[in-house]
Structure prediction request, 153 residues.
Amino acid sequence: MSARTIVAVIAAVAAVFWLASAFWTYKDARRRIDDPWLISLAVALGLVPYVGPLVYMLFRPPEYLEDVRERELEIKAMEDRLSRRDLVCPVCRAEVDSRFLVCPICTTKLRQSCVNCRAPLEALWQVCPYCETPIEAPGSTVYSPPPWQSSGH
Prediction:
């Protein structure tokens, strides 16, 4: 092979690499950038031999548009689930009404009822808002020491 042939092959490989990197910049910009003007700017930058695609890689958006849209859909789905969090049984996931005391499917206790008016109560309430009856926490008892610990000697 002559020196002229070797130089021609190296020049052809360099040209193919340059065009391939510019094409890669175009394809990558289309997947990451939504604005057509910014895509054309990225392609123009990608056409700068060898340095352009490297500069583009430093300043390109970190995520693909498809990943951004997918994440936004997942967040919206989570927000929808959280907004109707109180409308399902925590055990069997059946739909329940906010006034239910127990789940009609699996009989899990959902709320405590007022001892006076039988209205469903929220867990943090200290008094029934319907009849003003004070609420005792479930299972709460007044502590009384055992007989052998009484202080009356």
